[in-house]
Specification:
Number of helices: 9
Strand order of the largest sheet: 1-2
Radius of gyration: 43 Å
Shape: elongated
Number of domains: 3
Helix content: 55-70%
Distance between the termini: 106 Å
Strand content: 5-15%
Number of strands: 2
Amino acid sequence: MKTERIPRTRTVPHTVDGETEYIEETEYDEAPAAPRDWDQIARIAVTVMAVVLLLAAVSWSTASIGSLLSRITVAAAAYSAASAFDLLWIMATVARWLLRTDPVRVQAAIRFGRVALAVAMAAIIADGYASGELVIGAVGACVSALAKGGTELAMLVHDKPLDPRTQQWLNKRRARLNAQLGLLPVRRELARGEAALSAERRRLELLSADSGSADPDRSEESTGDPDPNVVPLNGGAATTKDLVRIAWDSGIRDDDAVIRYIKGRTRKAPSPDTVGRYLRLLRSGVAG
């Protein structure tokens, strides 16, 4: 029976000159070797042969279709266009593999691959007919079909079909995930819109605050009672008169207390005369 050595590492103490350190020591255990997986080897062989056949078919069809198209255009453009026939089929085959667990969408990839193969075969036969070698063209088209059929067989070897119940479970889980993924762009769009709306509202609030400081009290001061001692708060959002009114409404009646309150709000001491004048108006009931 074949065996294999399995390394195992452990930490052991090692002492030199009375100094002990822990080092790693590797030991090897003998264990029965796993049997060779011939099924996996066969899958790899099938895949390699399918790739070789596909490359041969792509080379043949590109050369044949390029020869046909080069009759009416330059060779570089003709062979570049000829490669599109097989590239489209390869694209459909890759899509078929990626969608193999989605029985609905995979049908579109299968149908497109068949159409691409039929068009490529027809172009190869047309090249044989135009060259006077219809039989060679037909054989070349069969080579392309057989090579691409081999690719389908290789995919079937690697495919893992699901039973109906598991397929339904997978469909439901995929549907929920797709719904969440589909909503991501919408959520990002809504977030951007809400952020823009919030910024616009904030801008309008600042503009209205700046312009609103000129309405009742400020207009009254600027026209009827100009006072150079009025100290604006935050760029005109509130004046000394406004702050005196706020302090009065809060129950502060003492002149010095009102001055301290305004100084704490504006970081600048107001004029005692101005504060006293506004307080006298409030006490007399004139300021409204």
